[in-house]
Amino acid sequence: MNDTDGKKPLGLRGGGRSGQVKQSFSHGRTKNVVVETKRKRVVVPKPGAASAGAGAGTGVASDQDPTKRPAGISDAELERRMKALAAAKANEAEEARQREEEEKAREEERERRRREAEEKEREEKERAEAAKRKAEEDERRRVAAEAKAAAPAEDPAAAQAAEARTAKTAPRKPERGPRVAEDRETRGRVKADDSGRRAGKLTLNQALSGGEGGRQRSVAAMKRKQERMRQKAMGGAGAHEKVVRDVQVPEAIMVSELANRMSERVADVVKSLMKMGMMVTQNQTIDQDTAELIIEEFGHRIHRVSDADVEQVIDTVEDKAEDLQPRPPVITVMGHVD
User: Fold this and answer.
1) Residues 118 and 95 in one domain
2) What backbone torsions phi and psi does residue 229 show, to the nearest 5 degrees?
3) What is the DSSP letter of 212?
4) What is the extent of the structural domain holding 282?
5) Strands, DSSP E only, in 205-251?
6) 122 assigned to some structural domain
7) 253 and 229 inside one domain
8) Residue from 251, 252, 256, 250 nearest 283 by CA
Protein backbone atom coordinates (compact mmCIF):
# COMPACT_ATOMS: atom_id res chain seq x y z
CA MET A 1 0.00 0.00 0.00
CA ASN A 2 1.65 3.23 -1.08
CA ASP A 3 1.01 6.82 -0.19
CA THR A 4 -1.09 7.49 -3.22
CA ASP A 5 -3.85 5.08 -2.29
CA GLY A 6 -7.12 6.86 -1.64
CA LYS A 7 -5.95 10.17 -3.20
CA LYS A 8 -6.77 11.61 -6.54
CA PRO A 9 -3.92 12.35 -8.90
CA LEU A 10 -2.92 15.99 -9.38
CA GLY A 11 -3.55 17.57 -12.74
CA LEU A 12 -4.37 20.83 -14.56
CA ARG A 13 -7.74 21.36 -15.99
CA GLY A 14 -9.89 24.31 -16.78
CA GLY A 15 -11.79 25.81 -13.91
CA GLY A 16 -14.65 26.84 -16.16
CA ARG A 17 -16.30 26.44 -19.47
CA SER A 18 -14.47 27.66 -22.55
CA GLY A 19 -15.83 28.80 -25.90
CA GLN A 20 -14.94 30.80 -28.95
CA VAL A 21 -16.39 34.05 -30.17
CA LYS A 22 -15.84 35.40 -33.63
CA GLN A 23 -15.01 39.10 -33.66
CA SER A 24 -15.59 41.05 -36.89
CA PHE A 25 -13.64 44.11 -38.01
CA SER A 26 -13.96 46.47 -40.92
CA HIS A 27 -12.93 45.50 -44.46
CA GLY A 28 -14.14 41.92 -43.87
CA ARG A 29 -11.48 40.91 -41.32
CA THR A 30 -12.46 38.45 -38.57
CA LYS A 31 -10.79 37.09 -35.45
CA ASN A 32 -11.56 34.15 -33.18
CA VAL A 33 -11.45 35.01 -29.45
CA VAL A 34 -11.35 32.27 -26.77
CA VAL A 35 -13.73 33.08 -23.88
CA GLU A 36 -13.52 31.12 -20.61
CA THR A 37 -16.25 31.28 -17.99
CA LYS A 38 -15.09 30.35 -14.48
CA ARG A 39 -17.34 28.88 -11.84
CA LYS A 40 -17.50 30.17 -8.28
CA ARG A 41 -15.63 27.99 -5.80
CA VAL A 42 -17.62 27.05 -2.72
CA VAL A 43 -15.67 25.82 0.34
CA VAL A 44 -17.64 23.55 2.66
CA PRO A 45 -15.97 23.06 6.09
CA LYS A 46 -15.70 19.62 7.55
CA PRO A 47 -18.05 18.77 10.42
CA GLY A 48 -15.23 17.75 12.81
CA ALA A 49 -13.23 20.90 12.22
CA ALA A 50 -16.29 23.08 12.69
CA SER A 51 -17.14 21.57 16.10
CA ALA A 52 -13.53 21.74 17.28
CA GLY A 53 -13.22 25.34 16.22
CA ALA A 54 -16.45 26.24 17.98
CA GLY A 55 -15.26 24.64 21.25
CA ALA A 56 -11.80 26.22 21.19
CA GLY A 57 -12.75 29.68 20.05
CA THR A 58 -15.24 30.60 22.73
CA GLY A 59 -12.59 32.32 24.85
CA VAL A 60 -11.19 34.38 21.98
CA ALA A 61 -14.57 35.52 20.62
CA SER A 62 -15.12 37.64 23.71
CA ASP A 63 -12.09 39.81 22.91
CA GLN A 64 -12.11 39.84 19.12
CA ASP A 65 -15.13 39.53 16.86
CA PRO A 66 -14.24 37.70 13.59
CA THR A 67 -16.85 39.74 11.74
CA LYS A 68 -15.16 43.04 12.77
CA ARG A 69 -11.56 41.98 12.28
CA PRO A 70 -10.51 41.29 8.70
CA ALA A 71 -8.41 38.24 8.04
CA GLY A 72 -4.66 38.70 7.88
CA ILE A 73 -4.45 41.81 10.15
CA SER A 74 -2.18 41.78 13.19
CA ASP A 75 -2.96 43.19 16.60
CA ALA A 76 -0.64 46.17 16.08
CA GLU A 77 -2.31 47.02 12.78
CA LEU A 78 -5.74 46.70 14.36
CA GLU A 79 -4.69 48.95 17.25
CA ARG A 80 -3.27 51.50 14.83
CA ARG A 81 -6.51 51.46 12.87
CA MET A 82 -8.57 51.88 16.01
CA LYS A 83 -6.43 54.86 17.05
CA ALA A 84 -6.84 56.39 13.59
CA LEU A 85 -10.61 55.86 13.79
CA ALA A 86 -10.74 57.48 17.23
CA ALA A 87 -8.63 60.40 15.99
CA ALA A 88 -10.93 60.81 12.98
CA LYS A 89 -13.98 60.84 15.24
CA ALA A 90 -12.29 63.39 17.52
CA ASN A 91 -11.42 65.58 14.52
CA GLU A 92 -14.97 65.32 13.24
CA ALA A 93 -16.33 66.33 16.63
CA GLU A 94 -13.86 69.24 16.80
CA GLU A 95 -14.85 70.39 13.31
CA ALA A 96 -18.53 70.17 14.23
CA ARG A 97 -17.86 72.24 17.36
CA GLN A 98 -15.92 74.82 15.33
CA ARG A 99 -18.73 75.00 12.78
CA GLU A 100 -21.24 75.57 15.56
CA GLU A 101 -19.05 78.30 17.06
CA GLU A 102 -18.60 79.98 13.66
CA GLU A 103 -22.35 79.81 12.99
CA LYS A 104 -23.01 81.28 16.41
CA ALA A 105 -20.45 84.04 15.79
CA ARG A 106 -22.03 84.82 12.40
CA GLU A 107 -25.46 84.94 14.00
CA GLU A 108 -24.18 87.33 16.68
CA GLU A 109 -22.54 89.49 13.99
CA ARG A 110 -25.79 89.63 12.02
CA GLU A 111 -27.69 90.56 15.16
CA ARG A 112 -25.15 93.26 16.01
CA ARG A 113 -25.35 94.73 12.50
CA ARG A 114 -29.13 94.67 12.64
CA ARG A 115 -29.08 96.53 15.95
CA GLU A 116 -26.58 99.06 14.58
CA ALA A 117 -28.74 99.60 11.48
CA GLU A 118 -31.83 100.12 13.63
CA GLU A 119 -29.93 102.52 15.90
CA LYS A 120 -28.58 104.45 12.91
CA GLU A 121 -32.03 104.65 11.33
CA ARG A 122 -33.50 105.90 14.60
CA GLU A 123 -30.77 108.54 14.94
CA GLU A 124 -31.30 109.69 11.35
CA LYS A 125 -35.03 109.94 11.97
CA GLU A 126 -34.42 111.99 15.11
CA ARG A 127 -32.00 114.29 13.27
CA ALA A 128 -34.51 114.74 10.45
CA GLU A 129 -37.26 115.59 12.92
CA ALA A 130 -34.96 118.03 14.75
CA ALA A 131 -33.98 119.68 11.45
CA LYS A 132 -37.65 119.91 10.46
CA ARG A 133 -38.56 121.51 13.79
CA LYS A 134 -35.66 123.94 13.45
CA ALA A 135 -36.69 124.85 9.90
CA GLU A 136 -40.27 125.44 11.04
CA GLU A 137 -39.04 127.61 13.92
CA ASP A 138 -36.79 129.61 11.56
CA GLU A 139 -39.70 130.03 9.15
CA ARG A 140 -41.93 131.32 11.93
CA ARG A 141 -39.24 133.74 13.04
CA ARG A 142 -38.69 134.94 9.49
CA VAL A 143 -42.42 135.47 8.93
CA ALA A 144 -42.67 137.34 12.23
CA ALA A 145 -39.67 139.51 11.31
CA GLU A 146 -41.12 140.29 7.87
CA ALA A 147 -44.49 141.15 9.39
CA LYS A 148 -42.79 143.40 11.91
CA ALA A 149 -40.71 145.05 9.18
CA ALA A 150 -43.75 145.53 6.93
CA ALA A 151 -45.72 147.25 9.69
CA PRO A 152 -46.04 151.03 9.09
CA ALA A 153 -43.35 152.97 10.88
CA GLU A 154 -44.35 155.45 13.51
CA ASP A 155 -44.28 159.08 12.45
CA PRO A 156 -41.32 160.97 14.04
CA ALA A 157 -43.49 163.98 14.86
CA ALA A 158 -46.08 161.78 16.55
CA ALA A 159 -43.30 160.06 18.47
CA GLN A 160 -41.98 163.42 19.67
CA ALA A 161 -45.49 164.48 20.71
CA ALA A 162 -45.99 161.23 22.61
CA GLU A 163 -42.66 161.73 24.36
CA ALA A 164 -43.68 165.27 25.27
CA ARG A 165 -47.00 164.08 26.69
CA THR A 166 -45.20 161.41 28.67
CA ALA A 167 -42.78 163.98 30.02
CA LYS A 168 -45.66 166.24 31.11
CA THR A 169 -47.62 163.49 32.84
CA ALA A 170 -44.58 162.00 34.60
CA PRO A 171 -44.13 163.02 38.26
CA ARG A 172 -41.46 165.62 38.68
CA LYS A 173 -38.68 164.98 41.12
CA PRO A 174 -37.65 167.67 43.56
CA GLU A 175 -34.93 169.89 42.20
CA ARG A 176 -31.60 169.49 43.88
CA GLY A 177 -30.53 172.97 43.03
CA PRO A 178 -30.61 175.67 40.36
CA ARG A 179 -27.36 174.46 38.79
CA VAL A 180 -28.57 170.88 38.39
CA ALA A 181 -31.91 172.00 36.93
CA GLU A 182 -30.19 174.24 34.41
CA ASP A 183 -27.82 171.45 33.28
CA ARG A 184 -30.72 169.04 32.85
CA GLU A 185 -32.69 171.57 30.82
CA THR A 186 -29.70 172.23 28.55
CA ARG A 187 -29.08 168.51 27.97
CA GLY A 188 -32.76 167.89 27.29
CA ARG A 189 -32.87 170.71 24.73
CA VAL A 190 -29.75 169.45 22.96
CA LYS A 191 -31.13 165.89 22.96
CA ALA A 192 -34.48 167.03 21.53
CA ASP A 193 -32.75 168.97 18.75
CA ASP A 194 -30.51 166.01 17.98
CA SER A 195 -33.44 163.55 17.91
CA GLY A 196 -35.38 165.83 15.55
CA ARG A 197 -32.38 166.13 13.25
CA ARG A 198 -31.72 162.36 13.23
CA ALA A 199 -35.35 161.27 12.96
CA GLY A 200 -35.06 160.20 9.32
CA LYS A 201 -31.57 158.67 9.48
CA LEU A 202 -30.40 155.16 10.28
CA THR A 203 -27.33 154.50 12.36
CA LEU A 204 -25.44 151.28 12.96
CA ASN A 205 -26.42 151.18 16.63
CA GLN A 206 -30.09 151.62 15.75
CA ALA A 207 -29.90 148.86 13.15
CA LEU A 208 -28.23 146.46 15.61
CA SER A 209 -30.25 147.38 18.71
CA GLY A 210 -33.63 147.56 17.01
CA GLY A 211 -33.97 151.27 16.31
CA GLU A 212 -36.64 153.41 17.90
CA GLY A 213 -39.10 152.06 20.39
CA GLY A 214 -37.14 148.84 20.97
CA ARG A 215 -38.36 147.29 17.70
CA GLN A 216 -36.04 144.97 15.78
CA ARG A 217 -35.91 146.34 12.23
CA SER A 218 -33.63 145.09 9.48
CA VAL A 219 -31.53 147.24 7.18
CA ALA A 220 -33.71 146.29 4.20
CA ALA A 221 -36.83 147.45 6.07
CA MET A 222 -35.21 150.78 6.83
CA LYS A 223 -34.21 151.16 3.18
CA ARG A 224 -37.77 150.44 2.09
CA LYS A 225 -39.03 152.99 4.58
CA GLN A 226 -36.64 155.64 3.24
CA GLU A 227 -37.67 154.81 -0.32
CA ARG A 228 -41.36 155.23 0.56
CA MET A 229 -40.67 158.51 2.29
CA ARG A 230 -38.69 159.80 -0.70
CA GLN A 231 -41.44 158.79 -3.13
CA LYS A 232 -44.03 160.40 -0.87
CA ALA A 233 -41.98 163.62 -0.80
CA MET A 234 -41.72 163.59 -4.60
CA GLY A 235 -45.50 163.35 -4.92
CA GLY A 236 -45.94 159.59 -5.09
CA ALA A 237 -44.80 157.02 -7.60
CA GLY A 238 -47.18 157.81 -10.44
CA ALA A 239 -47.22 156.30 -13.87
CA HIS A 240 -44.27 157.47 -15.97
CA GLU A 241 -44.93 159.24 -19.19
CA LYS A 242 -44.73 156.94 -22.20
CA VAL A 243 -41.69 157.61 -24.39
CA VAL A 244 -42.40 157.13 -28.09
CA ARG A 245 -39.32 155.92 -29.95
CA ASP A 246 -38.38 155.66 -33.61
CA VAL A 247 -37.47 152.03 -34.19
CA GLN A 248 -35.49 151.06 -37.28
CA VAL A 249 -36.43 147.57 -38.38
CA PRO A 250 -34.51 145.64 -41.08
CA GLU A 251 -36.00 142.87 -43.17
CA ALA A 252 -35.38 140.32 -40.34
CA ILE A 253 -34.74 141.13 -36.70
CA MET A 254 -34.35 139.09 -33.53
CA VAL A 255 -36.97 139.39 -30.81
CA SER A 256 -34.41 140.43 -28.20
CA GLU A 257 -32.96 143.12 -30.51
CA LEU A 258 -36.45 144.47 -31.22
CA ALA A 259 -37.19 144.68 -27.49
CA ASN A 260 -33.85 146.44 -26.93
CA ARG A 261 -34.57 149.03 -29.63
CA MET A 262 -38.02 149.70 -28.15
CA SER A 263 -36.59 149.74 -24.57
CA GLU A 264 -39.18 147.18 -23.56
CA ARG A 265 -38.90 143.93 -21.67
CA VAL A 266 -38.20 140.85 -23.75
CA ALA A 267 -40.82 138.90 -21.80
CA ASP A 268 -43.50 141.45 -22.75
CA VAL A 269 -42.57 141.24 -26.43
CA VAL A 270 -42.62 137.42 -26.36
CA LYS A 271 -46.00 137.50 -24.60
CA SER A 272 -47.42 139.79 -27.30
CA LEU A 273 -46.14 137.46 -30.01
CA MET A 274 -47.74 134.48 -28.26
CA LYS A 275 -51.04 136.35 -28.12
CA MET A 276 -50.74 136.72 -31.90
CA GLY A 277 -50.27 132.94 -32.21
CA MET A 278 -46.49 132.91 -32.73
CA MET A 279 -44.62 130.63 -30.32
CA VAL A 280 -41.14 132.17 -30.53
CA THR A 281 -38.26 132.76 -28.16
CA GLN A 282 -36.00 135.75 -27.70
CA ASN A 283 -33.31 134.27 -29.98
CA GLN A 284 -35.59 133.75 -33.00
CA THR A 285 -36.07 136.22 -35.84
CA ILE A 286 -39.28 137.76 -37.14
CA ASP A 287 -40.07 139.66 -40.34
CA GLN A 288 -40.78 143.37 -40.77
CA ASP A 289 -44.57 143.02 -40.87
CA THR A 290 -44.71 141.17 -37.57
CA ALA A 291 -42.25 143.63 -36.04
CA GLU A 292 -44.43 146.51 -37.24
CA LEU A 293 -47.47 145.04 -35.47
CA ILE A 294 -45.50 144.65 -32.25
CA ILE A 295 -44.09 148.19 -32.46
CA GLU A 296 -47.54 149.69 -33.05
CA GLU A 297 -48.93 147.69 -30.15
CA PHE A 298 -46.31 149.16 -27.82
CA GLY A 299 -46.97 152.68 -29.18
CA HIS A 300 -43.72 153.35 -31.06
CA ARG A 301 -42.98 154.44 -34.63
CA ILE A 302 -41.39 152.12 -37.18
CA HIS A 303 -38.83 152.96 -39.85
CA ARG A 304 -38.22 150.22 -42.38
CA VAL A 305 -34.65 149.84 -43.61
CA SER A 306 -33.05 147.37 -46.03
CA ASP A 307 -29.62 146.38 -47.27
CA ALA A 308 -30.03 148.59 -50.33
CA ASP A 309 -30.49 151.62 -48.08
CA VAL A 310 -27.21 150.85 -46.38
CA GLU A 311 -25.43 150.65 -49.73
CA GLN A 312 -26.88 154.00 -50.81
CA VAL A 313 -25.51 155.67 -47.73
CA ILE A 314 -21.98 154.73 -48.69
CA ASP A 315 -20.57 157.54 -50.88
CA THR A 316 -18.06 156.73 -53.59
CA VAL A 317 -15.22 159.22 -53.56
CA GLU A 318 -13.63 159.92 -56.92
CA ASP A 319 -9.88 160.41 -56.97
CA LYS A 320 -8.56 163.55 -58.59
CA ALA A 321 -6.12 163.24 -61.47
CA GLU A 322 -3.54 165.54 -59.89
CA ASP A 323 -3.53 163.38 -56.74
CA LEU A 324 -2.75 160.14 -58.58
CA GLN A 325 0.86 158.88 -58.41
CA PRO A 326 2.54 156.16 -60.48
CA ARG A 327 3.61 152.92 -58.78
CA PRO A 328 5.73 149.97 -59.92
CA PRO A 329 3.91 146.88 -61.20
CA VAL A 330 3.23 143.94 -58.87
CA ILE A 331 4.80 140.72 -60.19
CA THR A 332 3.67 137.36 -58.86
CA VAL A 333 5.31 133.97 -59.45
CA MET A 334 2.91 131.07 -58.86
CA GLY A 335 0.81 133.21 -56.57
CA HIS A 336 3.71 134.62 -54.55
CA VAL A 337 4.39 138.35 -54.66
CA ASP A 338 8.09 139.14 -55.20
Assistant:
1) yes
2) -65, -40
3) G
4) 246-313
5) 246-249
6) yes
7) no
8) 256
Domain end point (choices 150, 171, 190): 150
Cα–Cα distances in angstroms (integers) from residue 23 to residues 16, 19, 36, 139, in the given order? 21, 13, 15, 103
Among 235, 251, 229, 233, smallest CA distance to 305 is for 251
Q: For 197-241, what is each residue's pLDDT tens digit?
A: 555 565 666 655 554 555 567 888 888 888 888 877 876 545 557
Residue 227 to residue 82: CA distance in whole angstroms = 108
Amino acid at 38: K
91 and 145, same domain (yes or no) = yes
Q: Do residues 258 and 269 make contact, with C-beta atoms less than 8 angstroms apart?
A: yes
Q: 337: burial class by Cβ within 10 Å (0-12, 13-18, 19+)? A: exposed
Q: Are residues 230 and 269 in the same domain?
A: no
- The verdict on residue 225 lying in a domain is yes
Are 217 and 210 in contact by the 8 Å Cβ rule? The answer is: yes
297 in a structural domain: yes
Which of 214, 235, 256 delimits the end of a domain?
235
Q: Decide if 213 contacts 154 (C-beta within 8 A).
A: yes
Rounded to a whole number, what is the distance in angstroms from the first to the last CA of the chain? 150
Residue 212 CA to residue 237 CA, distance in Å, equals: 27
Can you tell me the distance from the alpha carbon of 174 to that of 176, in angstroms, rounded to the nearest whole number? 6
Is residue 225 within 8 Å of 155, Cβ to Cβ? no
Virtual torsion, Cα 127, 133, 134, 138, nearest 10 deg: 160
- DSSP E strand stretches across 200-331: 246-249, 252-254, 285-287, 301-304
Q: How many domains would you assign to the chain?
A: 3
The stretches in the chain having pLDDT less than 50 are: 1, 55-64, 66-67, 154, 170-171, 174-175, 177, 211, 237
Q: Does any domain span residue 49?
A: no
What's the one-letter identity of residue 183?
A: D
Each residue's pLDDT tens digit, 117-155: 999 999 999 999 999 999 999 888 888 888 877 765 545
252 and 282 housed in the same domain: yes
Whether residues 299 and 278 fall in one domain: yes
Residue type, 48: G
Same domain flag for 219 and 279 = no
